Amino acid sequence: MNRRNLLASAGILATGTMAARYGFAQMSSMPGMQHGGAVPPKTVIQPIEGQPLPMLKEVGTGANGELVAELRASPASAEIVRGMKTPILAYNGMSPGPCFVAREGDLVRITLVNAIPGQESTIHWHGMPVPAEQDGNPMNPVTSGERRTYEFRLPEGSAGSYWYHPHPHKFTAEQVYRGLAGAFIVKPRGEDPVPAAFGDTPLFFTDMRLASDATMPASTPVDLMNGRQGDFVLVNGAYKPELSLEAGTRRRFRLYNALNAGYLRISFGGIKFALIGSDGGLLEAPVADMTEVLLAPAERAEVLVPFDGSQRSVTVQSLTYDRGWMGPGAPSAAAVDLMTISVTGSAAASIPPLPSKLRAIADLGASTITKRFVFGETIKMGGPGGMSMTFLINGKVFEPGRIDETMKVGQPEIWEIVNPTDMDHPFHIHGTQFQVIDTEKSGTRVAAPFKAWKDTVNVASKETVRIKIVQDMPGDRMYHCHILEHEHLGMMGTLRAGA
Ligand SMILES: [Cu+2]
């Protein structure tokens, strides 16, 4: 039965009393519930907007080739709405946390201090090739009040746009939407094929929902089902910020979708730009004449955008994208303004050319091993509240300690990720970068248009995505949907890579 029929037969879609029928403990105190439905009340307050784009605070490698830092995760407050305090979670008082910048070959030694009252935490190095026991998995929690040091060396060829966020069992979604996430940029050991004159600016997108007192309300059943979407998308922690650039420049941006569940279909006011990088670093060559790039939650892209001065004010937007929605409260279908770039100086006759080549991307080798991962969702009856929704991979809800799949270190495999559900799900696996082979929908198979390193790939509703994957290090790795509320409700498994 498809989900809509399932819900209708369970009497959920029509009644508007979804909350009352779900078994979530915190329900009665949730904002929005007193309004007779599961839709949160519309925010009546507005964040401060139009401030200069904040630059992320960079923490770099020392002269000895070691990046040593401490990340203290703790409650903090932010002034999102003028004169009001929003309680958040922050790393070293900041959200996003510091932007780590290291080079291939560097040693990283970062200590997490968990000062979050009553909750475990970890730091997961999203997309980075780090040993399993250093990767902040849920089975290695740092309890409240404790600290632990993560240590790993960045291998050659690992330059890319990574990020970090907590990954504790049952608290990931909440800790991330409350503010815990940051960028981690690895630069090449040798010369960067992208000219330094193009700059290198991370745009770290998050989102936020605020109640009328500027606090962040707890997630509702609708949030858990669809993934929590905020009312405001922030860029480097600011709402609709402004950036000023000279005409005649080509700029390098690293785009990060760090939203819990929201998709970003980013355009630069119609300007044709070049895609030069994916989750795991540069492509082989720029892909020119792009007008938009779709980023599912956790995906990243590097782009080069020309500003010739013909547009004096460029609105960076997220265009509408239908990722599937269940029940009330679907986000607006209108494009969302993310930030404004004002272009100063006299219009330039020419823009510096694109680099023709970026780097070589190796093939992963032949494989005869195929695994299949099928997304699913179900409504579970029983319990005091009546029912709850769970999300599945291969018919199973995540269970700590259970090994769902095994593979041999160094041996490439082909994985088919199948999504028969009504909603898109971004598939992510820890510890490695994979390559997309092709996608298939309604019987039409489309080969990946170019080689790219990915750690997260969107699997649209009714679509199958085939990837080629190798794990180079032994250990247990999580794979899961990166709509964090779906991960929370069970859409996760454990892979054991061994000899
Ligand atoms: Cu999902």
TrEMBL record:
Pfam families: Cu-oxidase (PF00394), Cu-oxidase_2 (PF07731), Cu-oxidase_3 (PF07732). GO terms for cellular component: outer membrane-bounded periplasmic space. GO terms for molecular function: copper ion binding; oxidoreductase activity. Keywords: Metal-binding, Oxidoreductase. InterPro entries: Cu-oxidase-like_N, Cu-oxidase_2nd, Cu-oxidase_C, Cu-oxidase_fam, Cu_oxidase_Cu_BS, Cupredoxin. It comes from the Bacteria. Residues 78-189, 227-309, 388-495 form the Plastocyanin-like domain. This is Copper oxidase. It comes from Bosea vaviloviae. The lineage of its organism: Bacteria, Pseudomonadati, Pseudomonadota, Alphaproteobacteria, Hyphomicrobiales.
